[in-house]
Amino acid sequence: MSKTSIKITSEKLDLNYCYQFVTDASCGGISAFVGTVRNDTQNKKVMQLEFSTYKPMAIKEMQKIAEATLEKFDVQKIAIHHAEGLLQIGDIPVIITASAKHRKAAFEACEFAIDTLKESVPIWKKEYFEDGEVWVNTHP
Amino acid sequence: MAFWIEFVQLIFIFELMKIKLLLFGITRDLLNANELSFEVLENINVGDLKKELHSKYPQVENISSYAIAVNESYANDDVKLREKDVVAIIPPVSGG
After folding, report:
1. Backbone region of residue B32 per phi and psi (left: phi > 0; alpha: psi in -120 to 50; beta: other values)
2. Which residue of A3, A92, A96, A133 is surrounded by the most CB atoms within 10 Å?
């Protein structure tokens, strides 16, 4: 049975699925990171976000992160799901769940996976403001 | 004979190949296209491609930095390109 669940979807992300996926009799704890769309950035009101992806490569990179996480920490299973398309304030762009025998590994796994995802997975976020829109991180 | 060899070499040197160049995020807006068909000299590497890119599309100077992916994997400047490779410009990512 697979120890990793990787998904990019334009449908609503399913926290319960990610939780159930990592559930394992050998585990003493499950940790989850749920990203949510914030209503402001640098004191500017955000109306909505749009995520676009280089999907086949993004899936591969997410799979690499999942495998690296399993190798680096004492975790049993990991799920990394990311949304694409338009998202509103409060919506969930990313969910990461990890199960481990002991809680520390589960916490560390989630932190490592989200940090690495933000660095390397080809997904781009566009912020829509009242007076325009901007691709995040693209200007010096 | 010497002339013939030079002639053959000349043809060899100027052999062109086609690669597909995928664009995402800010570069899609800057170049106003989802993908480009790019003709380059055979056997060039990723570093050479970047130079070509900058001379042909100076708009790419407007992004702070970018990476190149070849066939869905990050590629450094030394990676050689082959005919029909799928190359993508990866502007700074902002997932999560």
Report:
1. left
2. A96
Least Cα separation, residue B49 to chain A (angstroms): 20
User: Residue A128 corresponds to which tokens in the numbers above?
Assistant: 């829509």
Which residues in chain B have Cβ-Cβ distances shorter than 8 Å to A125?
A: 94-95
What is the value of ipTM here, to two decimals? 0.92
- Structural domains of chain A ordered from first start: 4-129 (3.90.1170.40)
Residue by residue, pLDDT tens for chain B (96 residues) are: 566 666 666 555 678 898 999 999 999 999 999 999 888 888 899 999 999 999 999 988 888 899 999 999 999 999 999 988 999 999 999 999
The answer to whether the CB of A22 falls within 8 A of the CB of A29 is: no
A116 touches chain B (CB under 8 A): no
Specify the CATH class of B20-90 in words: alpha beta
* Nearest chain B alpha carbon to A54: B24
Which amino acid, one-letter code, is at A58?
Answer: A
Report yes or no: B22 and B86 within 8 Å, Cβ to Cβ.
yes
The domain ranges of chain B are 20-90
Cα–Cα distance between B96 and B94 in angstroms, integer?
7
